[in-house]
Write the structure tokens for this entry.
Amino acid sequence: MLINQFLLLGAVLFCIGVYGVIARKNAVLVLMSIELILNSVNINLLAFALKNGGDPNGHAFALFIIGVAAAEVGVGLALVLLIYRNRRSIALDELSQMKG
Amino acid sequence: MLAAESAGWFLEHAWLIPVIPSVAFVLILLFGKRIGAPVNHGAYIGIASMAAALVLAAGTAVQWIQHSNDTPSEEFVEPVIRKIVWWQSGGWEFGLGQHIDGLAVMLLLLVTFISTLVQLYSLEYVRGDRRFTHFFAALTLFSAGMLAMVLAENTVQLILGWEIMGLCSFLLIGHWWEETANSKAALKAFFTVRTGDVGLLVGVSILFFGANAWAQENLGESGFSISAINAWALSGDGSHRVLMWAAIALFIAAIGKSGQFPLHTWLPDAMAGPTPVSSLLHSSTMVVAGVFLVARLYPVFWEGLGITDSGVNFIAVIGGITLVIAAFLAFVQVDIKKVLAYSTVSQLGYMMMGLGVGVWTPAVFHIFTHAFFKCALFLCAGSVSHSGSHHSFDMKKDMGGLRKYMPITFTVWMVATAALCGIPFFSGFFSKDEIIDGASHNGYGVFYIVGLIGAFMTAAYMTRATYLTFFGDPRGAAAGEHHDEHGHQVDHVAAAAHDLHEAGIVEDILEEEQEHLHDAHTDDEHGMAHLHAAHSAHGPGVHDPHATGGHDEHDHGAHGPQESPLLITVPLVILGVLAIFSGYLNAPASPFKTHYFTDWVEARGEPVVETEFLAGGPGESVIVIGAEEEPAGEGHDAAAAGGEHGEEHAAEGCGWTPVEAGYCFAVNSHPTHPEFTWGKALTTSIPLALLGIITSGAIAIAIYTRKRKPFYGLTQDNALARGGYNFLWNKYYLDHIYENGIVRAVTGPIAKAAYWVNQNVLDGVVNGAGLGSKATAKWVYRNVDQRVVDGAVNGSGSAARGAGGALRPVQSGKVNQYGALLFAAATIGALVLVIVNS
Amino acid sequence: MLLGALVAQNIGFGVIAALMIIAALRVVTTNNVVHAALWLVVVLAGAAGQYILLQAEFVAITQVLVYIGAIMVLFLFGTMLTRAKIGAEDDLNNKGWAVGIPVAVLLLGTLTYVLLDTFGDEQLPNDVTPVSVMQVSDAIFQPYLLPFWALSFVLLAAAIGAIVLARKD
């Protein structure tokens, strides 16, 4: 197997995730796009771990990322829920109180 | 480069001097409110710390003098350098330490001494202020910053002290920030100085990258070490272009800090701070920092700007321009502190010019003497306003005739003024004349003339200020005990009107709403007139000691002008005595022939580190040849090289021309120090100074004593004259001399036309030398000061606002858009990296 | 035999990768939030398959357990709690969605160029002994103990934070 096939898969997933973050209006969908990005990173990490002859560090980092992703989704969805409760909508482009 | 073994405890531990006030600063902040209550919150900590620092500095000075005397004359006086490394990063070491040499010792003593006196003075001056504790905390930290900068071993530490001072000056100038004018002035000072500080960062970086490799290889020092930088600059191994740009960048920093020509506008505004602050800032700290920077890294400037070749160079030009422009501006000021502020700017111009024309020792000596007499002058002004004119600094309205009421203040003021004007046998004479002489001696003819003009103008504007303050009839708040209640009533009830007037001055400086200013003053005068009337109704018996409550933060005591209390007069007298005698440390004039200052402060030479040119081996000092002395040792070649310039320049010796046998330390003034002759002084500077005093004094006396009544009558009878009078009075606060002259000329229609031309064609040469200087001052003030410099400042502000407005839509508050920007930026960044690296 | 295994691996990779890309595209293009979540499950499962191909069994199992088991359920709950409507919608994309395409394409181009330029046709080693769970645990509990603690606190904080945020009162 080529290392590049995994890395390119990661790159494609990453870019799809980026597109999702930019294009999607619905907050839940944006969170899902972020999950795509995180998974692409994991694929890269594990590919490099294998390239370095089975480096357990890569695996450890992948596990950390999964853990962080779980935390992120938990808080993210709680926020979405709160926003929905206050505004009856989770469309992100309506949330522009931070406008400078 | 470690200290000599025999250096002595005080020299070894000079680093304690800035540490003590720094600790005191923290203590004052934490416990200040509890100590010395109910009145002197925390002040004693500050004073005690400054006194302790003074004792240490005195010990250091004594041991340094021994150290200098132990060193054979003409040999390099080894500085006492100690340092610790507090941070290492990527093989670069950042040290903290002390570099004690004559310059540092002189300034340590000066700063601790002046700071102690100013703090004592402040005890009385700001008593009862609502931020008394913070005032002392900031004052103490300010001194600590200056001290840390003075003994800095490396440029990073120098920046540290420099910036601490910048911050504290902001805090202190804006001490009474409730008034918009004050906080504006503080901001202006801070930003203007910051503009220059960019130069400091750039210059230090250039020097580090230029000197680091050389210093590591030859000295085992980092490129931040000041001694290493100086040695590198003199070694000739550095590129001239690097040195030049470093010198220019550093000098820009010095311009900002020392209020030199393009960036001097902050200095007069800084008068918004309490008087002790002005006094400290403008005598021994802050503004001297820029001069100190140049003096400290002098070899960089020497080599980088080619001071050697007696051509026109950046430092001398800026110094000369500042000297004259500031002196012009001092004529049109009505606020006594602003006269002194412009005088400071002008004197700093002298120092810079001295450094620029290659006379290091006289320039540094001028720092020393100037500190005493300028501090004395500021404290006198404070004393006058504190006890004589009810917190007014307006010479025209609220002063006059005060010599009868404030004899001590008056005496000290006269002594300090004499010193500033360069009257023989006062301290300023010895330092200033040496600079002027040196300029001519080193072949800088233009700057010699500039220096003489400056001496004339200094004498003239100081005479004007002296006359307005202490002679003539009392006016306004100083109107004496006959008009006691009247003065109080006016001061008290018209406080608002007066504030308006104060704000007006600053607005004038900021070039805002000249018309408004006009109106404000008219109102002010009406208000005064009204109050006069109101007072008459009250009758002469009204006598309310609490009428002064309008100034909540100050304790007036009794009424009318009177002498200030001991806490104010004692520092004044000490400074007054020093204003006379500090000059005798280096008085080459014939009856004294002292040169202690040269012996103790001058480094006399720089050790030449291993270079192929070196004859005597590493660490060997290079002999520098004095004009009168026989060339000795390695100096022979130098003398020969100097000889080419003819008899006049024979003294220039090494440093003037690169010497085969080694390098001299450029700052040495023996080669460039002209011999003092009374003959020269009697034909140039002394007569000019006396002429300035006599001219200015005679005109002032004529106007004030004899012509007062016709003058007023004229303005009341003649509408046009009144218009002209108001125009001048309100807008420019011009001297009565000029007002009277102009008003007389405006009695007929032809004169009216001439007057119109005069006022509109601003060169004003037609009205003779007096009017010419006035008009030049006015023009400079309005166009250069207000339009160009402030315009640039305002322009940068509006540019920033425009950019902000253009970028505002980016801050849409939409998360997706932010994400798009983030990823787009990252992509472009990655793309750039790829392109660059491929 | 070895060749056959390699071919099988490559075929497996290709199929899974194709599925993942299609699913990922559906995630960011579909008009139905629930469908998007289900497509995301496909992507995550495919990722787990890739992990196994990369000889990371433990990570793959964790992926299935945590992502597909827990996170996806969270997503579905989130969707249902915030939207009354489960069916398709028209306005899931915001107005600036077109910006995303050039950015993503440019990024992909850059990444592709860099990866091809750097690694070319470098092969992954075949004779590597798979990383055992013990090795992973040694890595986590010895050199990465501090990050592990930190992560534990992050999770705790996230749990508490999520509860606080989502409480009704």
Summary: Chain C touches chain B through 13 residues (CB under 8 Å).
